[in-house]
Amino acid sequence: QQQVKQSPQSLIVQKGGISIINCAYENTAFDYFPWYQQFPGKGPALLIAIRPDVSEKKEGRFTISFNKSAKQFSLHIMDSQPGDSATYFCAAIRRGGSNYKLTFGKGTLLTVNP
Amino acid sequence: NAGVTQTPKFQVLKTGQSMTLQCAQDMNHEYMSWYRQDPGMGLRLIHYSVGAGITDQGEVPNGYNVSRSTTEDFPLRLLSAAPSQTSVYFCASSYGQPSYNEQFFGPGTRLTVL
Question: Is A102 touching B (CB cutoff 8 A)?
Fold first, then answer.
């Protein structure tokens, strides 16, 4: 059972365009949703994260939108640049208690053409 | 700080061989984990540790052993390698629970089992 579904698998965007990656989750106990960015040959790195009591979080050109009722969240990359070309993973975890397991989506390969 | 380091970067094994993937961190992080990354599958948790002497299973633990004798090191052992274990392995660490603390990933070990 895949608890976090991510789409699309791959995305090609022109420089200056908006990249949108979507994720949906099933477990309503999830209450923390990070996004990771991974460049080829490197490990993932935390990009931005959101809690469900916030509908939107923005950091520079990166914005997370969160829809709690639909159990969906998305990453928007404004003014996409070739340097943004990477694989992006959404993730989810339930905070509190002794929970240590982060559940990842399957990833989206973003290519930004110059 | 070197952060999270992994050795080796690449490894080729024959079916049935054993080996240990090394992971070390110099950030005094209590929480460490191992993930495997397969094409189209995202990151899946193999084992994790919440401190020296304490380990637990993740999502895909079969075929792997771990131990945590020091805060700094968290080796992953393959006792009898199988082709299904061909993957890229990432070690990660965080100060505390990954639900509250950023996880830092190592550069990965690419393992091929023939």
Answer: yes
**Is the pLDDT assigned to residue A95 strictly greater than 80?**
no
The answer to whether residue A94 neighbours chain B at the CB level (below 8 Å) is yes
Q: Say if A32 is an interface residue toward chain B (CB within 8 Å).
A: yes
State yes or no: cis peptide before B8, omega within 30 of 0.
yes
Please report the beta strands in A1-114, taking only residues with DSSP state E, as ranges in sequence order: 4-7, 10-14, 19-25, 33-38, 45-50, 56-59, 62-67, 72-77, 86-92, 103-104, 108-113
- B84 φ, ψ (degrees, to nearest 5): -65, -15
Calculated CA dihedral for residues B77, B83, B85, B86, nearest 10 degrees: 110
Q: Kindly state the average pLDDT of the residues A20-30.
A: 93
Which of A87, A95, A100, A106 would best serve as a mutation to test chain B binding (most B beta carbons within 10 A)?
A100
Fill in the amino acid letter for A112. Answer: V
Question: A86 touching B, CB under 8 A?
Answer: no
Nearest to A43 among B44, B102, B105 (CB): B105
Q: Is A93–B44 a contact, with Cβ atoms under 8 angstroms apart?
A: no
Of A78-92, B53-67, B86-100, minimum mean pLDDT range: B86-100
How far, in Å, CA of A105 to CA of A2, rounded? 8
Q: What is the mean pLDDT of residues B73-101?
A: 93
CB contact at 8 A, A19 and A77: yes
The pair of three-digit structure tokens given for residue A8, joined into one six-digit string: 């699309």
Work out the minimum CA distance from A101 to partner chain B, whole angstroms.
7
